[in-house]
Amino acid sequence: MKTNGGHEPVFCTVVPPHVLDKLAQHEDPALAGPARRTLERDALERTHRRLTTVIGAPAVAAPAGAEAGKPHRTVYDAGHGTALPGRKVRGEGDKPGKDATVNRAYAGLGATFELFLKAYERDSIDGNGLPLDATVHYDREYNNAFWNGEQMVFGDGDGEIFLDFTIPVDVIGHELAHGVTQYTANLTYFGQPGALNESMSDVFGALIKQYTLGQTAAEADWLIGAGLLAPRVTGVALRSMKAPGTAYDDDVLGKDPQPATMDDYVRTGRDNGGVHINSGIPNHAFYLAATELGGHAWERAGQIWYDVLTGGELKEKASFGDFAKLTVAAARARYNEGEELRAVLKAWEQVGVRTV
Amino acid sequence: MRIQVRRTGGFAGIERFAEVETSGRADAQEWHALAEQAVADGRGTPPIGVPDGFSYQITVNDRTVYCSDPRLTEEQRKLISRVLKEGA
């Protein structure tokens, strides 16, 4: 942090979370100790209530006369404002327009729909033909993309650190996968279940990219957000499932904080209890299982993970250990005592998550 | 008046922090009005967020409030954008 006489906003860029944690202890006594724990618990409970409410909401019906097993996509343009969904700019079956962002979002929705249908026989996000809506050009210089419980929202990035969030197809898949999780296991977006929720989105986001490119586990880069960082940033992506913690190391952005194993698990109240940090551990377990098995990762490793996510056994507040045990059971149920089971057991052992 | 904004979460999970000291600024009154309204509309504990949505902590002098995307008031959004010099 620096000051400059108070005549201009003091801009501290992006500070690594561990540094900020330390700073917060000095600057903000309200966050310290018991108060902090209370805040975390409150946030957990509210998130849980909200997600339950979302799940309980009546499902949005597919358009009348719509064919089952086909996507129903609509892309909207927020026109750099923040009102959702914005102006409709491309509907299902419409020809590509001049806006590359709109075309990428449309194609990304299609790629995501395709993987879930072809690999797992799932008809859209809810398994029942849910229309897929996305809004692009949200706000100005907006460095984010999110799932608001009903649709995807994509910013254009500021051009300094981030480019357009529709560029990586795995980012589009990541956001839609949050929808799949919401309609299935509904993992609570806090702490370990939150990190599992994030990891589900990274796993299926990566699989959508690999499926689109026809890559095997050995050929894939296992990066999340490759192509999203502006040229001046020292980094290849936002996360690496192959080598968590190595995606970027930049003077402005800081260093990728993801751990690969439980030895480096990060305890923090920030980021909903480190959901984007500790997701590195289950992400790496998936990478290890998929590469051990070889071939197309969406076929066997992906099937096991999908079986757990949608099988009804995974609790909303599942820990990494709960999830790992279910993958072992799912591998056995689908493939018996074969190499799939051995690959899954070995993967969790390597990241330090117990399966017994 | 010291105005601080801390943003956490988001797809990237990368934090940002920035602050503005309004004393001596020609537009201090405008900052004060904006900050007071943004804080008045904030919550005492972190509100409900959405997956990958940004969460914000706004501190004006010694008072800290919380808000989250996409449910920001106009004043909160304007204040956050101005302080972080980025979209919110």
UniProtKB/TrEMBL annotation, chain A:
Keywords assigned: Hydrolase, Metal-binding, Metalloprotease, Protease, Secreted, Zinc
UniProt-annotated stretches for the region Disordered: 63-99
Enzyme class: hydrolase
UniProt-listed Pfam families: Peptidase_M4, Peptidase_M4_C
Gene Ontology MF, one: metalloendopeptidase activity
EC nos: 3.4.24.-
CC cofactor: Zn(2+)
Residues annotated as domain Peptidase M4: 86-182
Location of this chain's protein in the cell: Secreted
SUPFAM superfamilies: Metalloproteases ('zincins'), catalytic domain (SSF55486)
Keyword Metal-binding: yes
Compositionally biased region (Basic and acidic residues): 89-98
InterPro entries: Metalloprotease_M4, Peptidase_M4, Peptidase_M4/M1_CTD_sf, Peptidase_M4_C_domain, Peptidase_M4_domain
Gene3D superfamilies the record matches: 3.10.170.10, Neutral Protease Domain 2
GO CC field: extracellular region
Domain Peptidase M4 C-terminal: 185-353
Domain of life: Bacteria
A Gene Ontology BP annotation from the UniProt entry: proteolysis
Catalytic-site annotation from UniProt: 175, 276 (proton donor)
Family statement drawn from the similarity comment of this UniProt entry: Belongs to the peptidase M4 family.
Role: Extracellular zinc metalloprotease.
Protein name: Neutral metalloproteinase
Species of provenance: Streptomyces acidicola
From TrEMBL, chain B:
Organism: Streptomyces acidicola
Protein name (database record): Metalloprotease
Superkingdom of the organism of origin: Bacteria
Pfam families: Emfourin
